[in-house]
Amino acid sequence: MQRISAKQTLVKTKKKSKNNEFILEKIAVIGGGSWATALVKILSENKSQVHWWMRNKNDVQHLVNYKHNPRYLSGVQFDLNYVKPNPDLQAVVAAADWVILAVPAAFVQEAIVGLPKDALEGKVIVSAIKGMIPDENILITEYVEQHFNVPNSHQLVIAGPCHAEEVALEKQSYLTIGSHDISTAERFCELLRNRYVKANPLDDLDGIEYCAVMKNIIALACGIARGLNYGDNFQAVLVSNAMFEIERFLDAIMPLHRSLSGSAYLGDLLVTAYSQFSRNRTFGNMIGRGYTVKSAQVEMNMVAEGYYAVKSIYELNKKLNVVMPITNAVYLILYEKISPGVEFEILKEKLK
User: Which domain of life is it from (predicted)?
Assistant: First the structure.
């Protein structure tokens, strides 16, 4: 994997100005959802200057007036000395050295389509998105590289296990920053660390990103199982089988000697599969209880990344031919409208 030295790292360590004050790190956060809100909380409380793009102008004005996001994690109060909300995407990106993408994968193209091709030049791009570009079936980092000419050596990905709701409550949380350049990843980790957030770099950008996509699919399966009244015994077997499924897929599409027992892999899978805050688990639960895809989406009013991801992974696997019974089952239920009860009767015979 390509590396760049610490001397070549795009973003430098904080320096002092002539009046002996620290120069603030300038960070753009693209997105107005719960995870974007949680990241703005962490970064701004650590005294970075956060330029925050939200699509809805009314939400921006509400944040300016009342210092909180009206739609997500509304209990989090922001210091507007450090948080600069703005509906002008180009202005937000231009003002920053780091650009964090935190919109659902299905809406990334729509959100940043207006940016000039050179808008991201010289910046570090950080994907906080755990999904893939629908129809193109590519990772977010691949999309950024293809459409904005940003090499993956200048990109980072954020992995959990970490739910935005627990960040808002300041529960102890852990983040892993994936990169091909450990020095840049470590620098970003420094911007995130505080009394309730620990962050560590890991040299596996691609594996972390694919695993983050896969774990949402598994969380859907766990939710469907719960909706069908399968118990904890079954779910434990489902998750343990899922780890082998993820490993087989990663070995086929992005081979690298890696242990999937780490927090960025197994940890992120477990929290998404079991947590009450997991929107993918919640979505799957509704499907298992008999909701249609459309009715579940309307009632949740939030995006479950796994719904789009499972189609992308299913399409990719047509060429790879990896044995993936859990992914196949979720795809057949969501896209081929196979009865969840029928499909899980078949799936349970394939698990060990």
Answer: Bacteria
- Quick one: which of 25, 24, 37, 129 has its CA closest to 85? 37
- Our answer to whether residue 352 is catalytic in this structure is no
Q: Convert the pLDDT of each residue in 134-148 to its tens digit.
A: 999 999 999 999 999
Q: What CATH class is the domain 6-203? A: alpha beta
200 contacts: CB under 8 Å, gap ≥ 6: 174, 175, 176, 177, 189
Of 1.10.530.10, 1.10.1040.10, 3.30.2000.30, 2.30.110.10, the CATH number of 208-348 is: 1.10.1040.10
Q: Residue 35, annotated ligand binder?
A: yes
What is the Cα–Cα distance from 329 to 65, expressed in whole angstroms? 47
pLDDT of residue 8: 38
Q: Strand pairing of 49-53 and 26-30?
A: parallel
Percentage of residues in the chain having pLDDT higher than 70: 93
Choice among 41, 123, 215, 311 that is catalytic:
215
d(CA 346, CA 144): 39
